[in-house]
């Protein structure tokens, strides 16, 4: 049974037609994901594509799910844009740089690494947790400052701070993450 809907102008449309117009115009442009590992990146594309397919959505040739192969904590950069031997990845890097620079997010969901030894040690990434070194404008002083610094440099803490920055930039939002 195909459900029909009578909208403005009294023209009948199937729900499937309406859904296939809604997804590329209103849903896909609002969903963005970052994944650092190739296998989960590929699986994310497959699972999201399959979930949309099961709802009756059919992708046009130029459409895609906006999941990018990138490190969420790294700021936009042009390092990957010189991958002449892999133009698709260079295009992907350019697209994610645009998203990282301009997009505002009101919902941030994450699965940060559970590793106390950070893999993100660039000065830019290390500095995002600077506000966590202070309470009421005063620098935290602990007996074991080395331990405090090690805990602050945990990628888990960096992801929390990254999410906070994204939500502040958007003016509000919600944040959820998987915890160990």
In short:
The chain has 180 residues and is an alpha/beta fold. It has six helices and eight strands.
What does this structure look like?
- This protein is an alpha/beta fold and 180 residues long.
- It contains six helices and eight strands, in the order E-E-H-E-H-E-H-E-H-E-E-H-H-E.
- Strand 3, helix 2 and strand 4 form a beta-alpha-beta unit.
- The longest helix is centred in the first third of the chain and has 17 residues.
- It starts with a strand and ends with a strand.
- 9% of the residues are buried.
- The mean pLDDT is 84.
> Could you tell me the strand content as a percent range?
5-15%
Q: Separation of termini?
A: 45 Å
DSSP helical segment count: 6
Low-confidence stretches: none
Total beta strands: 8
The coarse silhouette is: elongated
Average pLDDT, to the nearest integer? Answer: 84
Largest sheet descriptor:
2 strands, antiparallel
| SS class | alpha/beta
Record the strand order, biggest sheet: 1-2
Rg, nearest Å: 21 Å
Assign a percent range to the helix content: 40-55%
Helix/strand order: EEHEHEHEHEEHHE
List the helices and strands and how they pair.
Elements: E1 4-6, E2 12-14, H1 15-27, E3 33-35, H2 38-54, E4 67-69, H3 87-102, E5 107-110, H4 123-127, E6 134-135, E7 138-139, H5 145-152, H6 155-170, E8 174-177
Parallel strand pairs: 3-4, 5-8
Antiparallel strand pairs: 1-2, 6-7
